[in-house]
Design brief:
mainly alpha
Length: about 100
């Protein structure tokens, strides 16, 4: 079950990055919007909830794993909080996917 959760959390951690790219493409094509801004902001709420859940899971994983040295655990927590959209898929690939 734990391995299944670790595999599933990867695509979920990519959702905020894909949404950010879609949002920026939609924003810079302003007169001809693909998706209305109202619906984009509704989807933003769901993406933020996903991000809160994934970051929470990763922070708990950081402090329970032995794969990361103890002096790097705080650094990875800060990186996840401030660079969350890019850092979540990277953290998942480096530490969660290969975690046994």
């Amino acid at each position: 079950m734990k391995r299944f959760l670790h595999i599933i959390i990867g695509p979920i951690s990519i959702i905020p990055l894909l949404f950010t790219i879609l949002f920026l493409i939609n924003l810079f094509s302003f007169p001809d919007l693909w998706i209305s801004m109202e619906s984009m902001f509704v989807w933003l709420l769901y993406v933020v909830l996903i991000m809160i859940g994934v970051i929470s899971y990763f922070v708990v994983h950081i402090f329970h794993t032995t794969k990361i040295r103890s002096d790097k655990k705080t650094l990875w927590t800060i990186i996840l909080f401030f660079g969350h959209v890019v850092a979540m898929p990277i953290y998942w690939y480096l530490f969660v996917l290969s975690d046994e």
